[in-house]
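Action item from last week, closing it out:
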Amino acid sequence: MSAGSGVKVKVQKFGNFLSSMILPNIGAFIAWGLITALFIPTGWLPNKALAELVDPTVTYLLPILIGYSGGKLVFDHRGGVVGAIATAGVIIGTDIPMFLGAMIMGPLGGYVIKKFDKMVEGKIKTGFEMLVDNFSAGILGALLAILAFLGVGPVVDAVSAALASGVEWLVGEGLLPLASLFIEPGKVLFLNNAINHGVLTPIAVEQARQYGSSVLFLLEANPGPGLGILLAYSFFGKGNAKKSAPGAAIIHFFGGIHEIYFPYILMKPLLFVATIAAGMSGIFTLVTLKGGLVGPASPGSFIAMLAVTPKSFGSFAANIAAVCVATIVSFAIGSLILKTDKAGNENLEEATRKMESMKGKKSRVSGVLTDSKTLDPQAVKKIVFACDAGMGSSAMGASLLRKKVKAAGLAINVTNTAVSSIPSDAQIVVTQSELTPRAKEKAPDAYHVSVDNFLSSPSYDLLINQLSKGEKAEPEAAEESSVAPFVDGDILRKENVFINQSFKSKEEVIRFAGQKLVEGGYVKPSYVEGMIARDRLMSTYMGNGIAIPHGTEEVKKEVLASGIVIIQIPDSVDFDGNKVRLVFGIAGKNNSHLEILSKIAVACSDVINVGEMVRAQSVDELITVINHAVAQNA
């Protein structure tokens, strides 16, 4: 990774962290905005009694929610509680909404209690855990609240005043439109939520409280720049970009999902000029006509914007004019660029993948942009579940999907394989989202489904619903058969089931599982590094508190025989932000492990079963839970 890209990633992570404190609470911001718009003396339905809700909501509720969210980001619910207590200290004694203070004290509270818990980990005597947990949170929260009240609050108060004065100076000097030089490119770098909700919203709320509305709410949320780009592609684009642009424009303008137009800019970066000029024009119009909103328009939909526009003809006229002007400017410049640019490199799918890479996760709207294959339910006879090595996650996923297919009475064969070995006759390919691009290269004519949670993905049921629209086969008569015992004499031995284990990191537990596979004679020692590499390449977390570490395809040759080890971790271990309490270390050879792995998948697909396994006090009890779950689903 280059230094530049490293800095970009760090900036994105910091921006995402800031916005992650605000976004979960946008509903509360909208509620405050609607109450303000309706019940203040100049609102739509003036009501002196209900208007009393405005100040307490913005002064206490919103900052405490932000502080809780910030603490929770750092250290889950416990961090959120301490972050909320610390935020209370920064709120009290000030006259302004302490959003910036909450964004400092919330994460700080989470960080402090996280460090304390790590410091005393393993040192608390049995029976005193709850006492220490509760009093440590209360004492540290109280100390942080006092620190916030005496030190942080006055500093943040001064900083907030300085920022507000800076914004007023920019408005007074006519320089506010220059903000588009940073806002419009920042959107495509996925700093839009950080810019809007992490920086502009806190200042805008204070302005709206003082003056009734704020123009800052619309600097980033104006849908005009993106709408103009999409309209330009609708008229002057080529191929799938032109075909998909009208639908994308509707989603963007009325749905408020701005990220849908980012790939269109990434195809032709010169279009940044159009969005920057449009953003400047829109801001200039807002400032000139004195537009603004009483609360955040999130998502940035035209409908959401109208909902939080103050009750006056002038405000509506100014806001609508700003959107129209930005759209016209963006369309005009974008059309000129598209008409004169002869590069002809309008690969929307590639631009969408680039956008998702920059975003760090799958886009909610990528299906609208890419030329996805259509699904003919009646023609489907084969579903292939693929993973990197074809021995672990794909086997579990295929087992669950096979069960759902059978329950739906569908005559469809479900198999699993490595992504590099997807057969040419695969009609539907199911993969982890990070593997989908590779799967599409291997099977370009197949219908592709991406999943993140292998054990309880909603994508399974959505796929079954789609397939069920075709003709169903008659369900096969159930055969009477006894359920085979879970523990196999060779693949899974009782001595390879480990109860009440504790680990500090996922690498530690993966190495433990790998070493037990080595000691059991299942794999060569070099297989363990392949297990570490596989998890670094793509998380082996499966959902429901389960992880199944196994080797990469490259180290399959190091497998001597199929084997499975089970590790119970009641206090959990972190797998990329997910709490894992059961680990199944896997080595597969000639698919002889798939029957047992299928039973594991069935048992672990129900979180109640997982909870019973985690609480099991002996190897026999854990095995009994799995056998019972398998028998119920047989």
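Closing note: The longest helix spans residues 129-172.
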